[in-house]
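Handover notes (outgoing to incoming on-call)

Open items:
1. Phosphotriesterase: sequence verified, structure written out, both below. Nothing else pending on this one.
2. Nothing else urgent.
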Amino acid sequence: MSAVRTVLGDVPPEHLGVCDAHDHLFLGSPQLPGQELRSVPAARAELAAFRELGGGTVVQWTPYGLGRRAADLPPLSRETGVHVVAATGLHQAVHYDEETLGALRGRLAEVFVTELTAGIGTSGVRAGFVKVAGGFHGLDAHARWTMTAAAEAHRATGAPIAVHLELGTGAPDVLELLCGRLGVPPHRVVLGHLNRCPDPVVHRWVAESGCYLAFDGPSRAHHATDQRMPEAVQALAEAGFADRLLLGGDTTTAAARSTGDGPGMPYLLRRLRPRLEAALGTEVVARVLVENPARAFAVDWSPPGEEHR
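Phosphotriesterase structure tokens:
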């Protein structure tokens, strides 16, 4: 039976409720010096504010080595009543030092599978999906390595694969590799950051592939195309792809939190949801926030070694 693997265990997809399909409670990278998301009280405040507005689930896209703080996620979920889905996976090479990457050579898929099935480190928290990343308008050797490992982990567990698209670009290359050469079913792939490159031709093309499209703004760090995001979502919904769409906030820095100077997690429901409901109607927006993420992140979790499609 399909279930979404949360930090408190597997739950039926219909229990997720309203979902922020791409966000971060904790995150640290040398690419964002001084802006690390490390505060447990701040994370709790974000989840509580999201819950107060009707939020039910947050999917954290923070992968291996970037400060996931997996052990802190279960108590936060219990205290706030918000389901949290954790990630395994690996980001772009620039986020890691050579020692970290070298230690993963030859065993990356094994690490992903272990974190999906046994737990992240000693926390006992199991990841619910794999997060990887492409490059600007293409894929480098690091991206191909991580995506190959992600595909292996998918075949072993059925876990969905979520992809950071650099500035929203490179989606055709990602799908060509993951779904073409590596055989991952499109409905098991979530493409993130499509709002950062509001190209309606590419959006339509990737939607036709059957993958999920995550429009995960606004964000203080990536606000240049925020005003185009509702327009892009509306165009895809009206073209018949409402069942492929996901929404998220992608809070990546301390300043972007609602406890800082940014919109934070509450903005998704406080401001963006009403704006989309005015354009698309409450039924379509409910599908995007509730039904679609429940399908996108639900897996028939079987023992490692069994082939998944």
